[in-house]
Backbone:
């Protein structure tokens, strides 16, 4: 296949696959698409380790790295003014009411307390301060793409990547955000509809993609949100995209490290079983509806805190529910396409099925006019 | 063009256009698609009048009628037991708190009271009792399609239509609803995503259409929600649909009777300016976000009542705001595609642009693989 995206990135198939799992990333790239590793949960040292592994297993094919530099977050001014002690300063913004709500919720579900608190690592997961060292690490590897979620990245980061010959992709949920990304030099816009998993806006892919294509032309656009097979790939490209950006579909692959409890819920869920919730990070993110999301919607919920305070607030709670893998309290980001994930397959088979269905779809569309 | 939908209905283009305006219906059918008149707001006598007009202006081309027979509504048991006096019985379910909330809201916005109450006409807009006489009227005209929203219609109504040679379409927002429609004999499923205007579910078109296509195969499916042009038409058909079902796009046509105040708001709105709200009928319906929808989301809102009580509750209020055309208090059902409606065009031009863009899209998709 040939689109402006395959040409820009030197790949065979315009399928971009976001995953937190290095095995999926390498497998997608080896199959002709482009795997993109989500760096968020890794320290710079861990990220270095993961990327070295990918370099050794990707067979020289291009792959990407996705970081999170939110354009706006609580305490951004503090972060700029004072890198040291930022965590403690931010912690002061978390009300006791919220701490009690989280502790009570876990107590009601019988989740054991931690024997000691060890929250050093990911308290600041959603700030520019965490992402910049990740960018430094990523650019020391032969990556083919740097992606950024949650708003326009700092212009100097775009320049830094481009100087290394690495195009930058930005994920946008609205025309306004897409334009902002372009203003700071982002090369490729990922137009992501509300049906996507994780952080997402409120406009659906069907409406959003053509809007963004028209707004940022001639910049290439990838369609994201609801893309789980070849019919949806063809639809995304019919909307004007040069390729598709996918995520949820890789959670149910043999290569993925999706925890067994989460996998079971993913395989059993329908497309109606997700909800956009602020309960994980403070910004709306689509995830499986469960006791966790219901609790934050409930009448006695204090409401989620703004990013990054919400994630700081719940960090210990996540480790507590993670330790016992509590299925109904573990936030599970996934898109509405979860309804079609009913079986675990090899990554290469998913890619093959995408392409076979894409081919069938195009043939079917041509029949509509051919018999005219 | 040729799809199973064009063959079933004897039309040239698989574009179905829902409208409350007879002029739009006739214009779409004359242009080769199929106009479908929304009968909800008409008495049987008015509907007779509208359909006679269409018969005289549609040039012998097929057109359809859309009725609303909700599968579930408050008081359905009363309706079955006692057709007489149903309105008064239902009115007893409306709490005073809700009446006060509506009256206070309009008073705050300076909306004049009615000099006399004349609510006889559409109090029962959303019950089977209203829709059956509409079906009787419709089937006396040479209609080519009977459509039903809000759940599976009674099986005898499907049989009645089919006996007249009229296929029945059902609008579904989930796989479960689509299956129920098929069980009562519905011929064509309109898979309508959350981005659609009016009553709508929570699953996006991109995810919903393939799910429903697979669930009801080999029954033909039309794609609805977010369809405003040829790229979206091609996308909907790539997803497996045999054609597209549209609505919002016709509000901004020269033939439409959209009130000037509403039209202005539609032309100025972005795709982010809609909200799914229960404030009009008690069931979630997408409409422009304005003071009306905000009030029902507010902290002092008593919450919407179930169908049909909500519409009974607000009937007088709608007439009051309608009389002065209060732009910020008039509920305006429209889909997210409203963001691309920026100019009023003749209906025939909209159809032409659909087809031209569809052709360009297919050509572009073919290039992707042709250069392989």
Residues:
């Amino acid at each position: 296949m040939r689109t402006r995206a395959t040409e820009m990135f030197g790949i065979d198939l315009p399928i971009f696959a976001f995953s937190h799992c290095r095995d999926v990333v390498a497998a997608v790239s080896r199959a002709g698409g482009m795997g993109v590793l989500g760096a968020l949960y890794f320290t710079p040292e861990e990220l270095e380790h993961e990327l070295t592994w990918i370099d050794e297993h990707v067979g020289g094919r291009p792959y990407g790295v996705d970081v999170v530099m939110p354009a706006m977050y609580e305490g951004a001014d503090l972060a700029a003014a004072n890198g040291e002690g930022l965590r403690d300063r931010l912690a002061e913004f978390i009300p006791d009411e919220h701490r009690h709500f989280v502790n009570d919720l876990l107590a009601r579900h019988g989740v054991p307390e931690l024997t000691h608190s060890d929250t050093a690592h990911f308290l600041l997961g959603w700030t520019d301060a965490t992402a910049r060292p990740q960018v430094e690490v990523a650019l020391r590897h032969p990556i083919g793409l740097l992606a950024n979620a949650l708003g326009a990245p700092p212009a100097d980061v775009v320049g830094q990547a481009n100087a290394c010959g690495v195009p930058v992709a930005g994920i946008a949920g609205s025309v306004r955000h897409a334009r902002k990304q372009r203003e700071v030099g982002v090369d490729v816009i990922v137009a992501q509809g509300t049906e996507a998993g994780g952080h997402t806006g409120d406009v659906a892919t069907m409406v959003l993609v053509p809007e963004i294509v028209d707004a940022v032309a001639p910049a290439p656009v990838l369609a994201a949100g609801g893309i789980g097979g070849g019919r949806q790939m063809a639809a995304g490209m019919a909307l004007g995209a040069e390729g598709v950006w996918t995520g949820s579909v890789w959670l149910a692959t043999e290569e993925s490290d999706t925890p067994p409890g989460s996998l079971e819920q993913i395989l059993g869920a329908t497309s109606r079983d997700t909800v956009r919730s602020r309960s994980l990070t403070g910004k709306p993110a689509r995830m499986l509806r469960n006791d966790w999301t219901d609790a934050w919607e409930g009448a006695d919920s204090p409401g989620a805190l703004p990013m990054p305070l919400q994630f700081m607030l719940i960090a210990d709670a996540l480790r507590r529910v993670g330790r016992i893998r509590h299925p109904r309290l573990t936030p599970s980001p996934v898109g509405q396409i979860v309804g079609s994930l009913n079986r675990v397959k090899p990554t290469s088979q998913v890619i093959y099925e995408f392409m076979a269905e894409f081919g069938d779809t195009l043939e079917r569309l041509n029949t509509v006019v051919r018999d005219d």
In short: Residues 155 and 259 of chain A are 37 Å apart (CA to CA). Chain A touches chain B through 50 residues (CB under 8 Å). The two ends of chain A are 27 Å apart (CA to CA). The first strand of chain A starts at residue 15 and ends at 19.
